[in-house]
Amino acid sequence: MAQKVLILGNSGTGKSTSIRNLNPEETFIIKCVEKSLPFKKSEKLYSSGKKNTFTASNISKVLGALEKINSNTKIKTLVIDDFNYLLTFGYKDSAKENGFAKFERLAFGTIDIFNKID
What integer best gives the mean pLDDT of the chain? Predict the structure, then answer.
């Protein structure tokens, strides 16, 4: 079972910057927002060309990426950067739906991500 660590903090406190201390050969980053990482040489360390980063703005795409990552034994650390955006985008996409189904879908999707990480 994987060890999960949740890092919370205000904007600009160094959560994403701390990625620079990880080994890029053993780290995979799923970015929920298309933006560059906030440290020097991040593009040289993490890129789609190096196959150690992927951008996914919805839960199903994250689950698809996790499927591929699970088969890669060299990956020791997985970062889902800006995870909160998955919920924000999910709420936006289902804003016109009535009922509680949209909340269930987001909740179960989030649980599916945590289970897939294991």
Answer: 89
